[in-house]
Write a structure and sequence with these properties.
2 copies of one chain form a homodimer.
Chain A (H helix, E strand, L loop, with lengths): L6 H6 L3 H16 L5 E2 L11 H13 L2 H5 L8 H15 L8 E4 L1 H13 L5 E5 L5 H7 L4 E5 L21 E7 L11 H18 L4 E5 L22 E6 L12 E5 L6 H14 L7 H8 L8 H17 L4 E2 L6 E5 L5 H10 L2 E2 L1 E2 L8 E5 L4 H17 L3
Parallel strand pairs in A: 1-11, 3-4, 3-5, 5-6, 6-7
Antiparallel strand pairs in A: 2-8, 7-8, 9-10, 10-13, 12-13
Chain lengths: 396, 396
């Protein structure tokens, strides 16, 4: 074997979601793109906001090549980091300055930097199911181990009752993904306050900080007036992680950041290590043009209604067809309970109708399928007849 | 300590080059930008080629948002990978197809993907001094250890006589950086052919492939008609690594690729693992807009003369002033032998004249300073008086 010991299994069990996405592309070649209902990937279909396009043009016109496309500090452009700090301070009554912000290659890049900065082999990272399957790989890159708190069904709130048992001296951090992928649940302020109590108690017991990694790329996708609490305002040792992939429809551009409050324990050590990690992991810096773009687009977002009408249509139709659907409050995913014990059976039946859904097994929460409704409304409308046939096949 | 065990020393000994760069920025604030002669960083000053700018505008105008800024396959856009394969095949008589190309977040990203894919803790990576100091960190991210072949002074060719002793069963790969940063040396075809003989012999002895990582971001920067041999055409188990940072002046955009020939041992395993590494290290994919841009800019390069006149002016002036200068054949760096035993003394004397040069200690080759002449010609002209004063201070 020419590859490293743990890569073989990683390749074999490679991202189920990505595989389905690529399967969908092949299916489209065979039966035509308009006849495939691909709900596999969180690849946002909402157009890029006009302000972003204007910013691209303005930045290219107003600056020298070497400024726009050249190296800057590893942590990112000062102007961008200042703009983000200001935005967070205004929005969430925080006290960040530019030095507290590190521009990253998306949220995934931020998470890798953090893990490289804090994990020793054998250290543990706690997640709440259902969780984004890649967290496990991100931690494993640096010898870290994911410890999973089982899901809280059917509420899908954080299962705090089982958290305390999962924390020990090896625990370095806890990931909170709010709104949650894949459940669409928004964890409310009360839950986060309870979490804070548990964390403060645990930190005393284990004798070191327990960082809360707030993975919030879906923050602005909150429906029906739902409010997503800003965790770093509640829990001191929080690292805020953000990406513009979803709210500006820029997933391919790999642009995001992390923010660390000066009040956090070990601030100086931690921010220094994260910036070094950003460099030595080979990112060097977040892509330069889009750093400047998002610096000018703070507070800009895609049209929420674009996803909300998808959410409503799918939720209503699938419920009407007799499926048990978890009503999403945020993000752009929807969980459907599998009518069969093994949800893979449900996934396969879906594929026969050219509906591509993802089993929630890799999210640590078997028994459901995830439907990513960040797609064109028309595709959803076209898919409804296929869902009707699927319901029939499932004996609904 | 809240950070991981090896990060403290990494932060303390953080990139000397980056520190000098940031020191230069501060110096500029104090005495004015035009009075600081910053030769620290390989941040290319040559304008971005017109063709690149046109490509940006065309791509934004001709495609949907979700194509330009959305997710694609983790390995990159098919159109870009095809264009690169075609270009390499035409230029170097190779036989690549799109599947052999993986788009990466620069060459640094490519190298991290490769190391993640092949290194087990304790594995060894051989480099020839002088070498880019970050290689050590890239390998260390995955528990790899850098083994250094000492420099061959004053020729600065690959020191092949000492290579064989450095190879053992733990050796996984050898990095060749051609043209070399910092020496500016182009390793000729004859050297690479000799390297091939040693590698073939060594592979028999150790019983597994020895991959040659061809780190070639400076390939097109070859002066006086110099030819940079294409190593994968000579050595079977080569992984070609390229970045558009230097030849298209896009370092901040983080765009590059790697190419693996199907003839390489373990091709399938390796390419699969590298694509997974690209995903799980959090890159996910190389930045999408610039993937499309470089797909349309194969064979485009910056004006070689932009750097060549810098090279000539500095080489001639510094030689005239009595310094011992290694004449660069490629890249945009120039080595000057320190007039003092400890070259840090020379670096400090330079700073007094607001000349920022980098000690070659971190390149595994003490006794020299590196001057990055990828700067404006006018800055070099302005710096000459400062170099005169420096020469005087050095007793020249």
């Amino acid at each position: 074997m020419v590859i490293s010991n743990d890569m073989a299994s990683l390749v074999a069990g490679s991202s189920v979601i990505r595989k389905l996405f690529e399967e969908g592309l092949k299916m489209a070649e065979a039966v035509g793109k308009e006849n495939v209902y691909d709900f596999s990937l969180g690849n946002p279909a909402s157009p890029v906001p006009k302000k972003v396009k204007e910013a691209i043009n303005e930045i290219l016109a107003e600056n020298t090549d070497s400024y726009v496309h050249g190296y800057m500090k590893n942590a990112g452009f000062d102007e961008t980091r200042s703009a983000i700090a200001k935005y967070l301070n205004t929005s969430f009554d925080m006290n960040y300055d530019a030095n507290d912000i590190v521009m990253t290659v998306g949220a995934a890049g931020a998470m890798n930097c953090i893990f490289r900065a804090i994990l020793n082999p054998g250290d543990e990272v706690v997640v709440f199911a259902p969780y984004f399957g890649e967290y496990k790989n991100y931690a494993a890159n640096y010898g870290g181990k994911l410890v999973v708190v089982p899901p809280n069904i059917p509420e899908f709130d954080l299962n705090l009752d089982e958290l305390e048992d999962k924390i020990n001296v090896n625990t370095k951090c806890i990931i909170i993904n709010n709104p949650n992928n894949p459940s669409g649940r928004i964890y409310p302020k009360e839950t986060i306050e309870k979490l804070n109590e548990i964390v403060l108690r645990a930190e005393k017991n284990i004798g070191h900080p327990l960082y809360i990694l707030c993975d919030e790329p879906y923050r602005e996708l909150a429906y029906d007036g739902g409010v997503v609490p800003y965790i770093p305002a509640i829990i001191k040792n929080s690292i805020y992680i953000y990406s513009y992939s979803k709210t500006l429809s820029l997933p391919g551009e790999r642009i995001g950041y992390l923010a660390l409050s000066k009040e956090a324990d070990g601030y100086e050590e931690l921010i220094g290590a994260i910036v070094v990690a950003n460099r030595i992991l080979g990112y060097v810096n977040a892509p330069s043009l889009f750093q400047l773009v998002i610096g000018r687009c703070q507070g800009v977002g895609v049209d929420l209604d674009f996803y909300d009408r998808n959410r409503k249509l799918l939720y209503e139709k699938l419920t009407e067809l007799g499926f048990e659907v978890v009503k999403p409050e945020g993000a752009f995913y929807l969980l459907v309970k599998s009518p069969f014990e093994d949800e893979e059976e449900f996934v396969e039946l879906g594929k026969k109708q050219h509906i591509i859904m993802v089993s929630t097994k890799t999210f640590g929460c078997p028994g459901y399928v995830r439907i990513a409704y960040c797609v064109d409304y028309d595709m959803i409308k076209r898919s409804l007849a296929a869902f009707e046939r699927l319901a029939e096949e499932c004996g609904k």
